[in-house]
Amino acid sequence: MKKAIITDWLDKYGGAERVVTAICEVIDFDYYYAYINKMDPDKQILTFGNKKVDIIQSNWFKNFKPFFRFMMPLFPAVVSTFNRQTKKNQVGLVVSSSWVLSKGYRVGKEKHVCYLQARNFKYVWEEADMYFRGPLKLLSFLKKPLQRFDVRAAANPDILISNSLFVKNWVKEKYNRDSHVIYPPVEVDDFFISDTRDDYFITVGRLEPYKRFDLIVDAFKKNGKRLLVVGDGSVLPKLKKNAGDNIEFLGFKNKSEIKHLLSKARAFVYAGVEDFGIAVVEALASGTPVIAFSGGASKEIIEDQRTGVLYNEQNVTALVDAVNHFETVEENFEAAEIRNKALKFSKQRFQREFLGLINATISNEQKICTAN
Q1: Nearest to 269 by CA among 344, 160, 277
Q2: Which helix (H) or strand (E) holds 161?
Q3: Taking the domains of the chain in order of start, what are their residue ranges?
């Protein structure tokens, strides 16, 4: 049985790419597909489990790499033509990694197992107002047709896997489909508990509007406590402009640097609505309690008052109150207990559950997936 893996686009090496890496470490694929490939060769090798592969990408996107997100109205045609483009490669199993497009892959009678990295195509659902703004607001009439395309695409896979219960519920609501839940792999063994803690709070991530770092900066400007902000993104200039002297922007840091910063922090702070939250798990794996908004998948990861503090309103006042409450109960948190709660999100657990589902999907005579 020949096998293919397909992902939406290859750009930076982040959480979605780590999922692909974990899959490729335990399954040998014959074909590697991407709708667009903007990734440098070293990161490509890392993404595909340290395998040097030839990536087949959509002909549509080859000349539009800097602007491919603006081709959103053409996504239905892109999926259709790419399916025809790869039809000659007869495969029995397709594994897709989807946050927009890949779930739409269907060329024949192949078994298609789709891992939903997030609520899919949020550009036309919850986050539509972030994308259809300015001159693009004139294209707002396309939201409904693109939503219908997204629902049709979600009907293609034989099996849908959601990366959290939060996403599973969203999939049922939007696509009227059931899905399995397999939490993403996190390299929890790479993180450690420090013997000492420093007097700072920390937040880590891509500094983009939907992650609501603005609430964190405003809250700490108000309370005056020391905050380290790790990461880069489009809202960094605005955040710096609004920040007080107690807030330090460290920019991009490599994994080794982040591990040390997390292990020394009093608490990790988060204000967004996450479909899962790898950075949150990494903080827990460092024995560091998390102060987070209770929306999204936070309640699946954080046990309130045991591994962190959850607050129920996504605003500055609620976050300030949560930080104040944390300080009254800070001594009650046990680093070893916090770290232990993170271990259930390990890469080994992900690979075991994913392979089990794959092998249950194909016939017993054709089990071709085995863990290393």
Answers
A1: 277
A2: strand 159-162
A3: 3-185+346-366, 188-345
Question: Residue 64 carries which side chain, given as an amino acid letter?
Answer: F
Pick the closest to residue 80 from 105, 49, 112, 47 (CA basis). Answer: 105
Looking from the CA of 144 toward its CB, the CA atoms found within 13 Å total: 1
Task: Classify 3-185+346-366 by CATH class.
Answer: alpha beta
Among 339, 291, 299, 351, which residue's Cα sits nearest to residue 319?
291
Residue 190 is given by DSSP the state G
Same fold for the pair 3-185+346-366 and 188-345: yes
Tell me what pLDDT residue 370 has: 47
Calpha distance 16→343 (Å, rounded):
19
What CATH class has 188-345?
Answer: alpha beta
At 145, the amino acid letter reads: P
Residue pair 206/274 in contact (Cβ under 8 Å)? The answer is no
Q: How big is the chain, counted in residues?
A: 372
* SS3 category, 43: helix
Residue 75 to residue 68: CA distance in whole angstroms = 10
Cα gap 179→300, rounded to integer Å:
17
Closest CA to 167 of 292, 296, 299, 273: 296
Read off the tokens for 243.
């920040």
What is the C-alpha separation between 235 and 232, in angstroms, rounded? 8
Long-range contacts of 240-243 (CB under 8 A, 24+ apart): 242/214, 242/217, 242/218, 243/217
Mean pLDDT by 10 residues, the chain (372 residues): 91 86 94 86 86 82 62 85 91 94 93 95 83 76 91 96 97 97 95 96 91 96 97 92 96 92 98 93 98 96 97 97 98 96 95 93 56 40
From residue 254, alpha-carbon distances to 43, 137, 260 in Å are 14, 37, 10
Q: Is 10 helix (H, G, I), strand (E, B) or coil?
A: strand
pLDDT at 206: 85
- Does an H or E element contain 165, and which? helix 165-175
pTM for the whole thing? 0.89
